[in-house]
Amino acid sequence: MSKDVRILAIETSCDETAAAVVVNGREVRSNIISSQIALHTLYGGVVPEIASRKHIEKINQVITEALREADMTLDDMDAIGVTYGPGLVGALLVGVAEAKAISFARKIPLVGVHHIEGHISANYIENKDLEPPFLCLVVSGGHTHLVKVEDYGKYEILGRTMDDAAGEAFDKVARAIGLGYPGGPKIEKVSHEGNPQAIAFPRAHVSEGNYNFSFSGMKSAVLNYLNGCRMKGTTICQADVAASFQQAVIDVLTGNVILALQESGIKKFALAGGVASNQTLRNAMKDECTRLGVEFFCPSPVFCTDNAAMIGAAAYYDFMAGRRDGYDLNAVPNLKLGER
Ligand code: KG4
Ligand code: ZN
């Protein structure tokens, strides 16, 4: 029997300081996340400089905790996987510097991981039989990508947002209706009390590129609606605005996914990214997949929002493909998917 491959994974691209131990890409032995959400809530969004400082404070603690919970030491590790982009440059640098230092001191191979590749790979953790090819929709605070996963590490981007990411739109609308940061979970919560059909926000269809998305028009429509209500002196029902906006986002996302599934004939679909933790979106995508006879996959919410286990899963397939990085590995804030 071949030897297990144990990876220590590190993720610091935005506002979570995270470390995990993952065995053979799919077995999560520990998944430690130190969230800075409470800290950034004070400012209504992520403050990059504060994020970097907090990562420095927490990084050693989360790694120690990840190894302790996995009941392993650095000597047991076969590789170190670390997110090197895309993300906030100062935040990424903390994880990259830490990974390089451990790699150098302990002579453990280093593997730089693309953050989006991590989100996609989160689907491997709880679905041991999932293998490419499949279609994946990555919806997070910084990205909205419809990706054809052709093989491990091999991606074709079919569509992407032309302006705001889906999560970014959730965050901006939440702020506008007084829900605060982070917007996604708060909009989802109040939507349960609202009517998704109450307000007809526009569903933008981008003519350029079949599967591209646009959310800034929808966000502006919400702002215009709120201004209109204020000018007319009509009461704003926060729950109806939230539910109607959420429904509009879901309609646009499912619309492109249905089209891509029908046109490509792919029979497996996976959701990924922070917005994928939205239960209404998960249910809508699942229903559409059932209707189309497509197998549906989605990670548990803890593997949807930023975490290091997903980075360990992605690092495993890169490691097995022979990828190794040197001590010149640098943070690349705007790293493109599939770029090495
Ligand atoms: O993947 P993630 O943790 O970080 C990035 O890579 O961006 O995603 C964070 C984003 C935020 O915009 C947040 O508002 C959104 O995911 N989000 C949600 C939900 N939970 C998190 N959006 C909608 N519904 C949710 N339940
Ligand atoms: Zn992310």
Q: Could you walk me through the main structural features you see in this protein, from its secondary elements to its overall organization?
A:
- This protein has two domains: 6-121 and 304-320, 2-Layer Sandwich (Nucleotidyltransferase, domain 5); 132-299, 2-Layer Sandwich (Nucleotidyltransferase, domain 5), CATH 3.30.420.40.
- The strands form two sheets. A five-stranded mixed sheet has the order 3-2-1-4-5, sandwiched between helices. Strands 8-7-6-9-10 form a five-stranded mixed sheet, sandwiched between helices.
- The chain is globular, with a radius of gyration of 20 Å.
- Helix 4 packs across helix 11 (309-320), helix 5 (166-176) crosses helix 6 and helix 5 (166-176) runs parallel beside helix 7 (216-232).
- The chain has eleven helices and ten strands.
- It is of the alpha/beta class.
- The chain starts with 5 loop residues before the first strand and ends in a 20-residue tail after the last helix.
- Bound molecules: 5'-O-[(R)-(carboxyoxy)(hydroxy)phosphoryl]adenosine and zinc ion.
- 5'-O-[(R)-(carboxyoxy)(hydroxy)phosphoryl]adenosine binds at residues 14, 140-142, 167-168, 170-171, 182-185, 188, 273-275, 277-278, 305-306.
